[in-house]
UniProtKB/TrEMBL annotation:
Any Pfam family hit: PHP
GO molecular function terms listed in the Swiss-Prot or TrEMBL record: histidinol-phosphatase activity
NCBIfam families: hisJ_fam
InterPro entries xrefs: Histidinol_P_phosphatase_HisJ (IPR010140), PHP_dom (IPR004013), Pol/histidinol_Pase-like (IPR016195)
Reactions this protein catalyses: L-histidinol phosphate + H2O = L-histidinol + phosphate
GO biological process, one term: L-histidine biosynthetic process
PHP domain segment(s): 5-212
GO cellular component: cytoplasm
Alphabetical UniProt keywords: Amino-acid biosynthesis, Histidine biosynthesis, Hydrolase
Identification of the protein by name: Histidinol-phosphatase
Pathway connected to this protein: Amino-acid biosynthesis; L-histidine biosynthesis; L-histidine from 5-phospho-alpha-D-ribose 1-diphosphate: step 8/9
Domain of life: Eukaryota
EC number(s) given by UniProt: 3.1.3.15
Lineage start: Eukaryota, Fungi, Fungi incertae sedis, Zoopagomycota, Kickxellomycotina
Amino acid sequence: MPFTFHTHSGQFCNHAHGTLEEVIESAKSKKFHTIGLSEHIPRTRAKDLYPEESHLTPPDLFELFENYVEEARRLKALNENKINIIIGAETEYITPEATSLIEELRSKYSLDYVVGSLHHVKEIPIDFDKETYQKALDSCGGDYNELYSVYFDAQYELITRIKPEVIGHFDLIRIFSPKSEQSLADRPEVWAKVQRNIDAAIKYNAIFEINSRAWKKGLPNAYPLKDVLQELINRGAKFTISDDSHGPRDVGLYYSNLFEYLKTMNIKTLSYFVKDSDNDVLRCVELTDALNHPFWTLNGYNQN
């Protein structure tokens, strides 16, 4: 303890910084017990490349992903008994056809886990910048109810088709919405989809991340925001914590805020994964009384 299961590096992600080894070294220096590596699964269409990827092609992304897995395994072996390293990937679910690719790569590279994340609505990125987010909203007739509904319907397909071990930034769709439009609980049709998705993930024992990167984006709390997080608590969900780091400087980013958020929401038990070396099986371990773990004080995250 603690841990993060959502990380990126500039070595394998063009909008991040630093090397994968530097990310791991940063986690070690901050006394992390576990780090999950989760570089993005490659996209297959040139039209889905981001501006910073203009020098790349989809085949380049596939080569980059293979290099990532190779480097991750090298670093895991190098750091045996120093930090628990779990090797996974974060989904790119732009169209339903992505399902077969995600499963293919999970099998081909024997990935330990998958972070199930949605970054697009109607094939338009929602977390790139405000202007692109507005395009996604415009594609839904400027209606936030429709925007949220399309997002949560696509997320439901991702959850039920892929069954990702970790549900990534559950309500990312609120990243650039104005404060007046951020509430989900008072939107009956949308809220029913939120509850449906939560239940679908709980059914196969998924873990929901509480993602501290939301503060970097100016949101009032981590993903998920309080209304959804309270519903997750009410429905008996399991939680882990993630920084969604995009380089070594981001490891543990806003974990002081995260500590306070967990305390405010009375979340005392957190889950993390370990990989049993003798039988190569991924196990979920629960850390009870998590807020009293010495890590928080050691790193100055607990200011009490």
